[in-house]
Amino acid sequence: MHIHHNREMSQSTLGLAHQLTQFLGNRNYGLRGLLSFHFLLFIFLTLTALLIVFTTDAYAQPSTPHILPNDVTQGTFLFRSSTENSYTPAPTLETKAHMIVTGFIARTTVRQKFRNPGSDWAEGIYVFPLPETAAVDHLRMHIGERVIEGHIQERTEAKKVYTAAKQEGKHTSLIEQERPNMFTASIANIGPNETMTVEIEYQETVHYDSGKFSLRFPMVVGPRYIPGTPTPPRESVTHTEGHGWAKNTNQVPDASRITPPVQHPEHGPLNRTTLTIDLAPGFPLASLASTYHNIHQTSNSQSRYQIALQDGDVPADRDFELTWEPKQEQIPHIAVFSEQHHGDTYLMLIVIPPPRTFADHLTLPRDVTFVIDTSGSMHGTSIHQATFALHLALTRLKDQDRFNVIRFNHETQALFSASQPVTNATIQQATQYVSQLKADGGTEILPALQLALAHQKPVQQEIGKHVRQVIFITDGQIGNEQELFQAIQQYLAHTRLFTIGIGSAPNSYFMRNAAQFGRGTFTNIGHLAEVQDKMNQLFHKLEHPVITDIDIALTGETLAEILPERAPDLYAGEPLLLAIRTTTPSEHIRLTGTAGSKNWETTVSLDEALQRRGIATYWARQKISTLMDQDVERKKNSRLRQEIIDIAMVHHLVSRYTSLVAVDVTPARLSGQTLFPHAIKTNLPHGQEYTAIFGLSAGATNGTWHLLTGLILLLIAGACTAYQWIRV
Prior knowledge:
Blueprint: H1 6-25, H2 31-54, E1 77-80, E2 87-90, E3 92-102, E4 105-115, E5 121-129, E6 135-143, E7 146-149, E8 151-154, H3 155-167, E9 170-179, E10 182-190, E11 195-205, E12 207-209, E13 212-217, E14 272-280, E15 285-290, E16 295-299, E17 305-309, E18 314-315, E19 320-326, E20 334-341, E21 344-351, E22 366-373, H4 381-395, E23 402-408, E24 412-414, E25 420-421, H5 424-435, H6 445-454, H7 457-461, E26 467-474, H8 481-491, E27 496-502, H9 508-517, E28 522-525, H10 531-543, E29 547-554, E30 560-563, E31 576-582, E32 588-595, E33 598-605, E34 610-611, H11 615-634, H12 638-651, E35 658-667, E36 675-676, E37 678-680, H13 690-694, H14 703-727
Parallel strand pairs: 3-14, 5-36, 20-34, 22-23, 22-26, 26-27, 27-28
Antiparallel strand pairs: 1-2, 1-37, 3-4, 4-11, 5-10, 6-7, 6-11, 8-35, 9-10, 9-35, 12-13, 13-19, 14-17, 14-18, 15-19, 16-17, 20-21, 21-31, 23-24, 23-25, 29-32, 30-31, 32-33
Helix pairs in contact: 1-2, 2-14, 4-5, 4-10, 6-8, 8-9, 11-12
């Protein structure tokens, strides 16, 4: 992420300095020599000034940035004073998250209380990450003892309502989606010394893989890399111009909305968070643990568990993850849940194929391309995790396999020109190559993705025996997700794409969707201690046959809409989740497929479906996600957009095209009182290094001071020249 022309300028400046030194060493100079000396001195000082200006990193932030926060976790206001041209942070008095988990459904409430310590009226804008599968359906604004409920509206209309209420001096709040895992909240007309609380509710499903259940609560999202050419300011249906440190580009049209400033670690962490969980898994547990935080847990005789952070609150600098494992005989292989909503029946079906359906003795020859991210955001613990994971992957290759290694930052490089057979010599060469990898530069994923998916014809021509797999290792901290999804769909062909998310807060929306488009799986590695266990689980999936060609049918004359429309391949230890909407309920669902060389079949009875709230919301969230995927393929289809709006409105969900807005009917701010906007800082994700990303130390000066310094140097040079001319 650094500017690379600085080295040439530095060499030119040093060359001139050397000439000056030689000149001063020669005392026998006349008027012409004196003029030459001052000419060289003028050029030297000019280049020095330019060097100071241009050595500033392209991603460095000014000391007083103008920002609109996105990709942040718990929000912290920065207030601009009416008397001083500076920002002062308003402390977060309380940030609480409470999760209720019942079986496969999790319901989370996030409450954030803010106080305006200044004497001016304030508008606060903050951004928070949520799970990429979250269905946000409630907004409540608390003002003293009063609670104002938010309502769902089309995004442009919600923005108009919010803007009008803001101008009228009313308390108002707005929730907008920037990405499925990134939301912007705005609160207007916070009075001097006033406290307001924003409460957001969302629903998600519990993740299951290889015998374990897990649930994540994201607390921070790292700085995004923004590729492309800057574009003129504009407004669109989905977003307005932001105030981030990055300008909107042709590849990331909303870059100004997703680039908040980052608190330097030397200044201490921001946004402390408390978290409590009520867990009712529905079966006895063999284990219950938090992956990255210390927790305190209690349980009762009904197998209900209460979990809380052991330290009470923690800085928001890494994701929280809770995992639980049922006793072996208690693992449910089939679960069906049902809900009636607006006259329709909604079903959620979960099928976990037993291990015997997978032919463990049968392995297929593979052609594997490993792609590893070596950009600046991977600097620190992330690059160690990534290279360790890649070393393990190389040791698991078999003689019948082929492989290649591609590394990328702002440049892309392949170890071999084409996939190589597995031999002692090629493995040793790859091992040495991986050991020397360092993290630096930008995150240009597209060229690496295209290169990894391009080498397919030679493999297909060789009788088609090799299964092509691409294993992509990255933190995914980029802003051009849609462009990459389109590339995967364009170049994938017969390849399977597996993504490995590295670091304490990877971009799980990109990682999971890339794997979904690539008909593979997503694995997250947040700590070095996890690498071996999680990579072994992934290897087991890669090395053994999967259930493919899955077909789903409801018995009888039932008309139903089943999601996903095309069932994905099943890998060892992974469940099949189906969302179904029907007006004429059926008695059974029949699933068929192929496991290795054998047929696979199971039938599920719907008569025993358990009634659960939230099943209709789950279906609606999956339907919106499916339509958004089609929107990627068709590049902004107006019919799809309207269908997304209709579903979101019926189910009260925030989406790319709908927002939640809450307005208090009573004006609070008088028309003559000025309203000041606010911005937000976020923590750097744990394990990342500030200078590796932004290239400046905590006390680095901004561009204005660089220009002023250069001007002073030029004035000094001019004064010296004038003085010598006078003497002559």
